[in-house]
Amino acid sequence: MFDPYSPAFDADPFPTYRELRDNHPCFWSEHAKMWVLTRYDDLAAAVKDWETYSSASGNLMDELPNRAGATLGTTDPPRHNRLRALVQHAFMRRNLDYLEDDIRGAAREALTAIDRRRPFDFIADISAKVTVKTLFRLLGLPRESEDDQLVRNNAVLMVQSDPVTRGKGPEHIAAYEWMQAFAAKTIAARRIAPTGDLISQFSVAEIDGERLDEREVLLTTTTLIMAGIESLGGFMAMFALNLADFPEARRRCAEDPNLIPQAIDESLRFNTSAQRFKRRLQRDVALHGQIMKRGDFVCLAYGAGNRDERKFPNPDLYDVERRPVGHLGFGGGVHACLGAPIAKIAARLAIKEFLALIPNFRRTETTLRWMPSSTFRSPTTLMLEAI
Ligand code: HEM
User: Would you say residue 144 has pLDDT above 70?
Assistant: First the structure.
């Protein structure tokens, strides 16, 4: 049964995805109250057709209050193109070299702090630390601030849902409010004393001669912090999980770090951390014998499309030689992930440092606890030990 609110479903959604792809490729989910698309070709077509599959009603499966229509991920062109153009330059590969030393330094510092004779939590001890430092540097947030772990904890909480009530609970809304207050404080400080960083520039930016309104500035800053920290941390955890579970892939990446970039792409395909996003139909659509009505919501299950054997032969194998061109791990079309170049650099450098120090490791727990989120799929802890 397709149940994006259940951590138990996230433990192994793949048999359900296969059943949906084969027998119900355009499926109405009572749990999610939306249509679910699972075949690669349908998803690849939907992300390119923003005029039909609109993001303006929100793109997170359970959208946060006020975000719809106000920022990246929740606006359609032409407004979306203009917002994206304002921040795009800071996220381009050629402008990111300055981050590399910080990422390497953060990974080394985190690795030095762990006791390699005992099990350690890859998420709390390594990926969370590297992610927070990378994002703080990128966004120009204060370094060595006491806020950094609070920022991380709230970013992770914001994207969760309550598996029982199937919606946002008070703790998720409180985390969102905390993050908006943190973003507002940062924006106010940058306006008084600009530091040339992304938030300083963005907080005074104009589109066609008009200043962005306060809500756009606030929610875009909040979105960048949330999207950056949760997505990158979750992805690094999934990558480490794949390396723990596939010893041959681990051995090859440790012996030849040049393989790590393609192992990252294969990880995004095989265990997609950004599993499911939402769109709203702007017209009726007939697909696989169903009529989806204008105004209906549609779940784009990227994690299912990435396991579609119609596109990727032998899809349930994590194969570092595969080069999965066109995978949906970063979405696609006009909303394709803005942070993809940063995510790839951070994951490559952190895992390279990790494998240099700990080339061989295993999981100490057979069962994983999955984060309760209808959009993202990653474990809450990943206990590893060196072998
Ligand atoms: C490996 C880590 C990451 C993964 C797997 C990931 C995944 C995704 C996916 C699937 C989307 C498309 C959402 C949709 O279809 O509606 C997306 C959009 C986005 N991501 Fe990422 N992301 C990652 C890292 C980051 C980072 C580090 C940042 C920022 C620092 C970021 C910022 C964004 C933003 C702003 C959007 C919306 C773009 C737009 O609508 O134009 N992401 N991401």
Answer: no
Give the distance from CA 248 to its chain's centroid: 26
Number of domains the chain is built from: 1
Confidence of residue 9 (pLDDT cuts 50, 70, 90): very high
Residue nearest to atom 37 of ligand 1 (CA): 73
Test site for ligand 1: of 297, 338, 349, most ligand atoms within 8 A of the Cβ? 338
Residue 143 has pLDDT above 80, yes or no: no
Q: How far is the CA of 75 from the centre of ligand 1 (A)?
A: 14
Mean local confidence (pLDDT), 330-352: 97
Nearest CA to ligand 1 atom 18: 337
253 within domain boundaries: yes
Going from the Cα of 289 to the center of ligand 1, the distance in angstroms, rounded, reads 32
How far, rounded to the nearest angstrom, does the alpha carbon of residue 167 sit from its chain's CA centroid? 19
| 147: confidence class by pLDDT, cuts 50, 70, 90 | confident
Is 27 a member of any domain? yes
Question: Quick check: CB of 346 below 6 Å from ligand 1?
Answer: no
**Which residue owns the Cα nearest ligand 1 atom 2?**
232
pLDDT tens for 183-224 read 999 999 998 988 888 888 888 888 777 778 889 999 999 999
Put simply, whether the predicted model's pTM sits higher than 0.85 gets the answer yes
Q: Quick check: is 2 in a domain?
A: no
Residue 1 is assigned to a structural domain of this protein: no
Average pLDDT, the chain: 95
- Residue 56 sits in a domain of what CATH number? 1.10.630.10
Query: What range does the domain containing 313 cover?
Result: 7-386
